[in-house]
Structure formats: structure tokens, C-alpha cells
Amino acid sequence: DYILMPSRVNLTKRQGLALEAMEYVKSNMKLYIVGKPDRDEDYRQMMSYIEEHHLQDKVKYFDFVESEEKLYANARAVLFIPVDEDYGYITLEAMEAKKAVITASDSGGPLEFVENGKTGFIVEPDAADIARAIDELAASQAAARQMGEAGKQRILDMNISWDNVVRELTK
Questions:
Q1: CA distances (Å), 87 to each of 23, 93, 109, 139, 170, in order?
Q2: What is the pLDDT of residue 153?
Q3: CA 153 from chain center: how many Å?
Q4: Per-residue pLDDT tens over the stretch 40-88
Q5: Prediction pTM value
Q6: Distance (Å, whole) CA 110 – CA 127
């Protein structure tokens, strides 16, 4: 069981806050961070934090994966907690894959899609709050699945699809 955090690695995507949250997580849930770092320093800081805080058994980092689809398919949920994201495609990818989404109250675009307690969780940008949401999803695979199903239905209800985008652009 793992929580997937796919995104470029940098300060605004807040992988550091996610790592801090993993120190508070009580369940056996792991965090899989997937994405290329914007700067070598971003990578070094992240890996140093993992080592210094003995999170090697709780956090796995991948800069490249053959099939991101498989990572989504097998994840319990998706963690996407950027600072003031403009739109949040990762949120839509997660919902398309029927995954609950944990996002932060100051994350911007994802707040247009995530319904707190229904399609995922909207938490304060605080490590302990994020950890509580992770542990809640860890405690109930059924609840996570139900939120994922609700997320998929939400994007269907909102008519968010590439077919619709193409149709609107070609009008």
C-alpha cells in the first residue's frame, strides 16, 4: 500500500512537507514520490531529508517509471499538495484513475475538483494534518475506493475529457 505523489520535484510542489508528514504517519502506508527534480539541489535536499529522518522504509523515490499508469492503478490514493497550483492535471489524472486525492487548502486549482470527505481530503498545509488523512485512507481500503469512484464520477459530471476539449476547440 502506498500513496502516490507524482510531480516535478521542487519547493512549490512541497515534497518536503510530504516527507515531514511521513514522520507522523502511524500506519504502514508508504509514500512513492515520482518526478524529475527541477534542480540538483531539490533532489539532494529531498534525499538528505529521507536519510536524516530514517524514512528509507516509508518513502520511495522514482525519477522515471516505465508505466505511470501502473503506479496510479496500484496506489491507495494520490497526494497533491502544491502551493497555489493553476489547474492541477495531476488531480484529474488521479480522479480518472479512480483514486482519492489528498490536497491542501492553499493548493489552488485542485480545490475546484476535490470535495472534502467525498472524493478525497482537503487538509491544512501541515504535516500532522496530511498524516491524519493518509492514515484515514490506510485504515479503510473500501473508503479510499469509494472516494476514488466518486472522483471519477465528478469529472464525468463536469464533462472533463479530451474529447470535450477537442469538440470545444473545433466549434
A1: 29, 12, 4, 30, 22
A2: 97
A3: 18
A4: 999 999 999 999 999 999 999 998 787 777 889 999 999 999 999 999 8
A5: 0.94
A6: 18
Q: How many CA atoms lie within 13 A of 110 on its CB side?
A: 32
Question: Which residue carries 476535490 as its cell?
Answer: 114
Cβ atoms < 10 Å from Cβ of 79:
33
Q: How far apart are CA 9 and CA 39, in angstroms?
A: 8
User: Which 3 state secondary structure label does DSSP give 166?
Assistant: helix
First to last CA, the chain: 44
Which single residue is written with the C-alpha cell 475506493? 145
Instruction: For residues 50 and 23, give the distance between their C-alpha atoms in angstroms, rounded to a whole number.
Output: 10
CA dihedral 130, 131, 133, 137 (to 10 degrees): 140
Indicate the length of the chain as a whole number. Answer: 171
Question: In the structure grid, which three cell numbers stand for residue 80, read together?
Answer: 497533491
- Residue among 139, 106, 94 at smallest CA distance from 17: 106
The string over 37-61, giving b where at least 16 C-beta atoms fall within 10 Å of a residue's C-beta and e elsewhere, is beeeebbebbeebbeeeebeebbeb
- Three cell numbers, residue 122: 482537503
127-139 helix and 15-22 helix, angle to the nearest 10 degrees: 60
Q: Are 147 and 76 in contact (CB under 8 A)?
A: no
β-sheet bridge partners, residue 2: 30
